[in-house]
Each structure stands twice: as structure tokens, then as C-alpha cells.
Amino acid sequence: MNQQTEVAVFGGGCFWCLAAVYAQVRGVTSVESGYTGGTVPNPNYEQVCTGETGHAEVVRLEFDPALIPYHDLLEIFFTLHDPTTLNRQGNDVGTQFRSVIHYQSAEQETVARKVLAEMAGVWDAPIVTQLAPASVFYPAEDYHQNYVEQHPLQGYCALVVAPKVEKFRAMYAGRLK
């Protein structure tokens, strides 16, 4: 990470969905799928899938705040998933699919609280997104990185991820790389 970039960590269901979108956002310099917020060191995908490690599937973004502010990354985050469903996104069910923002600084926490308050007026149900301090980030296995780009015709990618990517592209055309 260079001096001009910051880190953001978000969980909102399957990390493939978030990674596929954020990889297209101008100002995001890297996207890595992984796990955070749990108790088991160096968890693997199979362990996280049990829901017993406490980890969430997340994306770790490096971004240039001069090109895309943290606030705007959060607005995109809230359009990519349903922050009102506890521990689930569609058919993905379990604590590993929770909606969570892991802030990296006091400034990010302040911005996240502001955006959460703004979003409360947008959604019809209470927002259950967790706000948590940064914790150890464990990169997911190599085959999870850039998964959608490598497997666009795989069923989940075509039926679940592709519509989210299209929604992002339509809503945020000015934010595309």
C-alpha cells in the first residue's frame, strides 16, 4: 500500500459479488477476497463455511481517496447487498455472510456511522450491518481471487453476481474504470 491509498474492508454476503463490482470502481487499486472477524487463525474456506470460526467473507480494498472517497465506497456497498437481512444474502445463509464494515481508523468509523444513519432512511426494515474495528485479515485461497472474472459462466456467477455487477454499472457509470 502506498501513501496515497487507504484500506477498506466490507462483508455483504459472498465475497465474489463484492469483489466483482469493486474491481471495476475507478480509484480502487486492489481487491482481495478473504476472511476477518473470527477466532480461528488462518482459516480456510471449508472452515469458514461451517459458520463456526466467527469469520465473515469480506473484501479488502485498497483505494485512492482522491479518486473515490470512503463515503462513496460505502454507498456502493449498500447498493450491492441487503443490509436488513441478518446473516444472509439471498440463499447464502450463515454468519459468514453477515453485513459488516470493518473500519480501519476513527475517521472511517465516523464516516461509516454517518452513512449507516443515511441508509436507515432508505431501507424499509432496520439495518443490521455490523460496525467493527479492523481485525486480522486472512486472504482467501487463490482460486477465490478474481473468481467471477475467471468463471463468468459458472451458475452462481451468471445468476447472482452478474445482475449485481449490471446494477452497479447502471447506477454508477461515472465510477467505472
List keywords for this structure.
single chain; alpha+beta; six-stranded mixed β-sheet; two-stranded antiparallel ribbon; 8 strands; 34% helix
What does this structure look like?
By secondary structure, this protein is of the alpha+beta class. The chain contains 6 helices and 8 strands. The strands form 2 sheets. It has a 6-stranded mixed sheet, with helices on one face. A two-stranded antiparallel ribbon has the order 4-5. It is globular and about 35 Å long. The mean pLDDT is 94.
- The coarse silhouette is globular
Separation of the first and last Cα atoms: 19 Å
How much helicity do the residues have? 25-40%
How would a textbook summarize the main sheet? Answer: 6 strands, mixed
Order of helices and strands: EHEHEHEEEHEEHH
What number is the mean pLDDT? 94
| Helix count, DSSP H or I runs of 4 or more residues | 6
